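For the sake of clarity, the format in which proteins appear in this thesis is described at this point. The record quoted next illustrates the convention:

___
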Amino acid sequence: MRGLGPGLAARRLLPLRLPARPQRPPGPRLSSGPAAVGAQERAMDEFLRRAVPATPPYELREKTPASAEGQCADFVSFYGGLAEPAERAELLNRLAQCFGVDHGQVAEQSAGVLQQREQPREAAVLLQAEDRLRYALVPRYRGLFHHISKLDGGVRFLVQLRADLLEAQALKLVEGPHVREMNGVLKGMLTEWFSSGFLNLERVTWHSSCEVLQKVSESEAVHPVKNWMDIKRRVGPYRRCYFFSHSSTPGEPLVVLHVALTSDIPSNIQAIVKEYPPSETEEKNRIAAAIFYSISLTQQGLQGVELGTFLIKRVVKELQKEFPHLGTFSSLSPIPGFTKWLLGLLNSQAKDHGRNELFTDSECKEISEITGGPINETLKGFLSSSEWVKSEKLVRALQTPLMRLCAWYLYGEKHRGYALNPVANFHLQNGAVLWRINWMADLSLRGVTGSCSLMVNYRYYLDETATNSVAYLGSKNIKASEQVLSLVAQFQKNSKL
């Protein structure tokens, strides 16, 4: 399998085959027109009333109704036969709206708790009243999900169902508090089922099965794998690739982490994904740093479940076992959204009579002379493509302003007090330090158009990660290096938003 002849041919890229949806059983179908839509909703509600198990009385809460397994199997079968996203979205919307919490029961049990508090009795009586209230607050669809999880392939089905729900929300097919609440309930259940104790850490090598190598290649969302020689290099000497699997999907990568073993912390991705390692045989004295350069979630239904955080922690322990002397851990991360953010600023300033608050006067003059026009308009055109990196003069002229703008984007732009950039938010939650911003670090089309060629190192000082994480999550404080803070200071001095 390691040669370039028959072994390589045996590993040719296989087409991705998704399981066909089973033939849909009789049930409601979407139609057009107000009357048809109303009939559709009534028919769908009737189907759900038959398929969603009723919530057992409190006294029987630990017993599984005899009919639950068959009802849940009917739901899975019917849902699997819905071919259109709009059909699945409508079913999930009706499930969220009509099969949630019984508010009458909640009011009744709440009154019972208040009554017990006003009449001094034994603590056990009050505790049981509170337990009855907790039980009443459980939505009916949670019981459906719970029973489905016990079916063969049930957990996998629920992961896909949540992926469909997230897609429907993104496409505005479903909206509202009931849908958001159901998504939160399902996410909480998946978080419990996919907690770190139930996950298996597996390493990928060139000797791994073709299926695993294929899945790892297809799941690579940060730096796409071009061919089998590319994946061979990424799992070969001075490289490590790990993934988490789960007992519900054995051998199936849920989240994949790629690591480069280097002598120092690299400042560009070309050195990792394009250049060959120093030798075919690893020499431990050449390895001083572990670089996390790609982490990809393969199951969209597990968004928000902390798989990536746990994976990095487990991989650090594995690497420390293999290389006891290893003390430097860092990411080399993309900055998705930076170009979009910058273009938005340029666009708004262009509309405001050519106002410029991003660049100094000397920078405006130099860039305008190179681009041959007003800085806001011409830069919008250049930065929307990858052609500008071919101009050495423009690359030099943009380095200083884009570096400080990027520093502010990562450090100063916030969403609810936390870093706006999702990759920054992920690493900062883990306790990493915003350590170094790198110019001309990713010259791929995606790197240039998505983040103006910039990348960033988030460095993991293992003895400080817990403290940094608490400070970020609790006080929203970002730990940054002197380089980043200096760039932020330059932004505050030379740029205005």
User: Anything to note?
Assistant: The longest strand covers residues 289-297. Strands lie at 199-203, 239-246, 255-262, 289-297, 328-331, 414-415, 418-419, 433-438, 455-460. Confidence is low (pLDDT under 50) at residues 1-26.
